[in-house]
């Protein structure tokens, strides 16, 4: 499975002529890196002197960060599968009217699925941004810059996933579906932008 590959192999494939892995997979990796950095901050806070008051909270953040990291990695496979489904739909025959109808239906269903996957990734990224905020505010002060990198990775992942929502939603003919997903995405983007900026400024002020 792609998530079990050495990082060099993944990067080589990302840079290759193959369409997958692509931007969606990169977004998922960035989100996973953000969650991993939150985990590091938590691991180096729990059990440390002077952080007893936040130990239980940071242990909870650690568990949530680990879960979000695993979910983000799962998004790599989901993104590739969604892309492959779209490509397979476009490759269907269109010799007869029945073929054309079946192909059009398959394309629309595939585009909807390909919209849902990066939208779910964006939701995960916003959650990681929220955990980064706690890590920056309450985590080990020696690691506050790492909490800052965590939020920047998660924010980049959120905006990257957003691009894949936009590009796939654009091809969906069901206007109500497309508009609802884009509206949901833009709410995530607005919240993520505000939180990420606030965390970055908190980190910078405390360096």
From TrEMBL:
Domain Cyclodeaminase/cyclohydrolase: 7-185
Keyword Hydrolase: yes
Pfam families with a match to the protein in the record: FTCD_C (PF04961)
Catalytic activity, EC: 3.5.4.9
Keyword Lyase included in the entry's annotation: no
InterPro entries (alphabetical): Cyclodeamin/CycHdrlase (IPR007044), Formintransfe-cycloase-like_sf (IPR036178), MthfCyhylase (IPR054893)
GO molecular function, one term: methenyltetrahydrofolate cyclohydrolase activity
Keywords assigned by UniProt, alphabetized: Hydrolase
NCBIfam families attached to this UniProt entry: MthfCyhylaseFchA
Protein name (Swiss-Prot/TrEMBL): Methenyltetrahydrofolate cyclohydrolase
Lineage, uppermost ranks: Bacteria, Pseudomonadati, Pseudomonadota, Gammaproteobacteria, Methylococcales
Gene label: fchA
